[in-house]
Specification:
Blueprint: H1 4-10, H2 16-32, H3 39-52, H4 67-73, H5 81-85, H6 91-99, H7 110-113, H8 125-135, H9 149-162, H10 166-170, H11 174-182, H12 188-201, H13 237-248, H14 262-274, H15 285-291
């Protein structure tokens, strides 16, 4: 299992209550979901939690928005300032408006009742019901349980199982993982930053005797730019030198840790484009020669 020091290393602003609950209830939940079976699964899981919960500091969605902010978040629902002002600083009214009538919300007040809660923000009656079923909690009748520290890690792992996220981890497709969690790619840059941070603390999966929740998928016959070469997914000196040089050149803004990830891939694509090199997104022979690494 993750040590207390590792959890604090990844989430330094988390409360003692959250860290205590993570330590106490995390191992069983993560084993049951198969997250501890592979390092990539654990790293992706922690990175998604980091973004969704702001580093384990938020277990309930903040809906106390200004009118201007509402127009930024939901431009289609709040096309004018006059419309937005009807909902500013009114979380209950806002939630019932933006979440009502969808995601399984059928009764008056469901939007607010089933607002975002937990480390992975559960939203909507249907999600509460299905994740609760996997977690063994009656979240549909008691949605407030999702915001309690002692339930948060169990619920996050149950959500991971419900969405079948592990296969995207096994082929190292972080973008697909994000889509499973978020429904899109909202906040992808921040999620990637969390992934880089997690990898500096968690470099291998803790030993686990649990049966894997899902088998790794066979290689996709079509090349995917999002999947790094196996040798590049571990820290190595050449990758670190490339990160340093691309940082100095203004292409790379991630951690200099010798780990090939999607931030480095994006930087390589941009560098290769500017230097008229084949855009592989990889640290291939021609790119190494150009960077002299």
């Amino acid at each position: 299992m993750l040590t207390r020091a590792q959890i604090k290393g990844v989430f330094p602003r988390a409360s003692e209550a959250d860290i205590d609950a993570f330590v106490k209830f995390g191992e069983e939940a993560l084993k049951k979901s198969g997250i501890l079976d592979m390092a990539t699964r654990l790293q992706y899981f922690l990175a998604q939690l980091g973004h969704e919960s702001n580093g384990l500091t938020n277990r309930e969605e903040n809906l106390n928005y200004s009118a201007a902010r509402l127009m930024e978040i939901w431009p289609n629902r709040f096309p004018t300032l006059d419309v937005a002002k009807q909902y500013e600083r009114n979380p209950e009214k806002l939630a019932n408006f933006v979440y009502g009538g969808r995601m399984g919300n059928v009764n008056p007040g469901d939007g607010y009742r089933f607002r975002g809660r937990g480390y992975i923000q559960l939203t909507g009656r249907e999600t509460y019901r299905e994740v609760g079923r996997v977690a063994g909690l009656d979240l549909e009748n008691h949605p407030e349980l999702a915001a309690k520290p002692e339930n948060a890690i169990r619920i996050a792992a149950a959500f991971w199982t419900w969405k079948n996220v592990n296969p995207t981890c096994d082929v190292q497709d972080f973008t697909a993982c994000t889509k499973k969690v978020n429904g899109g790619t909202n906040g992808l840059d921040d999620r990637l930053n969390w992934l880089s941070k997690v990898r500096t603390v968690v470099t291998a999966a803790p030993s686990s005797t649990a049966t894997p929740a899902s088998k790794p998928l066979p290689p996709n016959p079509r090349p995917k730019p999002a999947v790094p070469e196996p040798a590049e997914s571990l820290a190595n000196p050449a990758v670190m030198e490339a990160q340093k040089k691309l940082t100095r050149l203004g292409y790379y803004k991630g951690l200099v840790n010798g780990i090939y990830d999607q931030l480095l891939r994006a930087a390589l694509w941009a560098f290769q484009k500017d230097e008229d090199l084949p855009q592989t997104g990889r640290l291939d022979a021609r790119t190494r020669e150009e960077l002299n690494v």
